[in-house]
Design brief:
By secondary structure, the protein is an alpha+beta fold. The protein has a domain of 54 residues. It is built from two helices and two strands; from the N terminus they run ββαα. The longest helix is centred in the middle third of the chain and has 31 residues. The relative contact order is 0.16.
Length: 85
């Protein structure tokens, strides 16, 4: 899973959007074409594995979104570092 972080200036809302990887879709099509009726045997294992992987990723995206909403994660308005001359 890949994602995109969206945050509008001046708003407290943060959106973390996850995208599906194409290899999952292609892998599913290849399995169906290759196995034919035998795909029914492997389908529950395949679906469980994919669901588990995407559950883990969705939890990671959810935690990232929550961390970005925290006030201490916001960029500082002023810098305490003096520029070198």
């Amino acid at each position: 899973m890949r994602g995109l972080i969206r945050r509008n200036e001046g708003e407290t809302a943060v959106a973390v959007v996850g995208f599906v990887n194409w290899f999952i879709v292609v892998g599913t099509v290849v399995l169906v074409v290759t196995l034919g009726r035998g795909v029914i045997t492997i389908a529950p294992i395949f679906l469980f594995a994919v669901a588990t992987l995407y559950l883990i990723q969705s939890v990671r995206f959810w935690r990232l979104e929550r961390a970005l909403k925290e006030p201490e994660m916001q960029p500082a308005a002023t810098s305490s570092v003096e520029p070198r001359t």
